[in-house]
Design a protein that fits this description.
Layout (H helix, E strand, L loop, with lengths): L3 E4 L8 E5 L8 H6 L4 H4 L7 H5 L8 E5 L30 H4 L8 E2 L3 E2 L7 H30 L2 E9 L3 H5 L7 E4 L8 H13 L4 E3 L7 H5 L7 E9 L4 E2 L4 E2 L3 H19 L3
Parallel strand pairs: 2-3, 2-6, 6-9, 7-8
Antiparallel strand pairs: 1-3, 4-5, 7-9, 10-11
Helix pairs in contact: 7-9
Length: 276
């Protein structure tokens, strides 16, 4: 099984590429046997249905790439060296980052409000197999898509698409969490006019928009951006409660309307960007 799904338009007419690295729903049997958590707990870290929300954009001439596997198995929005010594046995070579210390490395140790995923440590061999079979193939293909698009249009805009749980309000002590958060690593990953255009289009559609608060962009945003060479990346976070029931992990009655509004924003965005 391929670790990703690549949805291609009949003819690519846009320099904008959409990526959904955290919406995967295939949980390997071996992984489920290793965890002490029920599937509902593991699924709490999914960017629920984000790949489905964006699926219509393929008909607008853009490429959509999405992970098949879940974030709790391998997190594509981390560097491959962000391994956790509290999870992986006999680990000697790793990057000691804040995310690793929090248990949220490339192979997460915790999920859903710091609940431990595993009953015991995993082997270094197991960790390496996941990275070799899932992480590297995904990033290889994503890099190829980005490079191909840049060659076609002399510009590429990667939109890294995510969703955020509403309980982050309690975690961040922010009672005014926006509907949409756009992250450009505080101005370093994208030309400012592109970010401001997207902010305006979402605002005009009635969404409350914040920039870089509380999310400014992760590994993908930083790794694939070179604005000076026309490689632009924006991380997009949608408030999950706008379109799904976070408790039952099901679509809410507002899903279709939410999707229509989001796709309408990007229909305008793609049209305007083509004239930039």
């Amino acid at each position: 099984m391929s670790p990703f799904e690549l949805k291609l338009p009949d003819y690519q007419t846009s320099c904008v590429v959409f990526n959904s690295p955290h919406s995967g729903r295939y949980y390997p049997k071996k992984f489920l046997e290793m965890t002490k958590l029920p599937l509902t707990r593991l699924r709490s870290s999914e960017d629920l249905f984000v790949d489905e929300i964006f699926s219509p954009i393929v008909n607008l001439g853009s490429i959509l790439m999405a992970a098949i596997f879940p974030r709790s198995y391998v997190d594509l929005n981390r560097d491959h060296m962000e391994l956790d010594p509290l999870l992986v046995r006999d680990l000697t070579d790793f990057s000691k980052t804040p995310k690793v210390l929090a248990g949220l490395g490339v192979i997460p140790r915790v999920v859903d409000m710091q609940r431990g995923i595993y009953s015991k440590k995993i082997s270094k061999k197991e960790a390496q197999e996941r990275i070799d079979n899932f992480y590297f193939p995904y990033h290889k293909k994503l890099g190829e898509v980005i490079s191909h698009t840049h060659t076609l249009f002399q510009k590429v805009i990667l939109l890294d698409c995510h969703s955020m749980p509403s309980n982050i309000i309690k975690n961040k002590l922010n009672n005014d969490l926006a509907d949409v958060v756009l992250g450009d690593c505080f101005g370093s990953s994208c030309e400012n006019s592109i970010l401001l255009l997207l902010q305006k289009l979402f605002s005009d559609e009635g969404f409350r928009v914040d920039i870089n608060k509380p999310f400014s962009g992760g590994f993908i945003t930083k790794n694939y951006s070179k604005p000076e060479q026309n490689y632009h990346v924006i991380q997009i976070e949608f408030l999950r409660s706008l379109y799904c029931n976070e408790r039952t992990l099901e679509y809410s009655p507002t899903f279709s309307d939410f999707q229509f509004r989001v796709v309408s924003v990007f229909q305008q965005f793609l049209r305007i960007i083509s004239n930039f």
